[in-house]
Amino acid sequence: MKKNPAKPSRGAAVKQAQGVRYPLEGVTVIDLSHVYNGPYATFLMALAGAEVIKVEPPQGEHLRSRGDMGGAALPFAMLNSNKKAVTLNLKTEKGRQLLREMVARTDILVENFAPGVTDRLGIGPADLQKINPRLIYGSSSGYGKDGPYRDYPAMDLVMQAMSGVINSTGYPDQPPVKSGAALCDFMAGIHLYAAIMTALYERERTGKGRVVEVSMQDATYASLASNYGMVHARGTEAPARTGNRHGGLGISPYNAYQTKDGYVVLNAPGDHHFRSILDVMGRPDLKEDPRFLTRSTRVANFAAVDELIESWTKTLTKNEVARRMLAAKVPCAPVRDLVEVMHDENMHARGSLQWIDHPELGRVALPHSPLVFEGTPRRPIEPSVPLGASNDAVYGEWLGHSQEELAAYKAEGVIGYSAEALAAKAEGVI
Question: pTM for the whole thing?
Fold first, then answer.
């Protein structure tokens, strides 16, 4: 027998904020996505107040499984705060039927499988919107659902190469280098969130859901605007890589400069910025030097500008250079390592980074959403939960399945490993 359906519990942390209404409160999201781009989009939804149910295969999604490599478990915790976690075998018909039951009472579904996978399983957008015409179905892939690259496999490294990021990173006389950030994944995640929120707004007016998709390739293109500007201006003569200099070679100074204990970056987008730099350096005598008079002349004399500045920065620490330049309103920052960034005073003061006692990882710094809704306090962070921790709450309390039914689903491998799979897992076969 099924119980009366009830919404999954929000958890103790959210109860502390009773009386606060978050922008996406009342919105339910099914998250079928894995690794970075989809989970980041649903992370933004969760921290905006949505009820996000993360659906994983019995063995866990790809990012969770990287936890056996030491610190690789932290990224999963960073992207899955405030989400429920259930397991579901979508390769079984009973598993797909459970998904359909959830979809019937869901606002948004997010997936980042290869194009066509959900259609082949009978849980594609056309199938699910027959069940729930108000459903917003969001998907992300490397190259999109159409076009000649549709079926190419894609991960961030591959997409950085195809999008021109790698060829634009590094020095002209050295091999190309990937971006340290998973740029294409997170660009896609941000755009996926935007597309879904746009569709949600439209649904308020029409009452109908919509299918939206974002490709990693499309989402990354505009980030190389400066570089494309240089290609337009110079054609085949445009250098592929400019090191730490401006991608369009249109600003000088614009570089990383050595200090006594590391590096500092600074730039002068306007002539007044460069005059301020000269004042800070104690070289006002150079303000009328024709090499440095305008941005154009400084760009033409890149090497001389960089040599002038670095001869001064080498005499100070990176933080002292930054302190002096920032006091003069010059865009400048020390080049910090990740430990320094993790302890950033500004981010912790704003609550965008928070120290959390994670039940599996111990004391960790977790990010909050970059989206700040003035007048509403940040939703308290609930740490990511173990694999399948919300099975009873979602399938039992929310969908109303009895404990007997849940036990049968587990035994059949619908919401967990079957007996045969468990035996194989114990023997290290899977």
Answer: 0.89
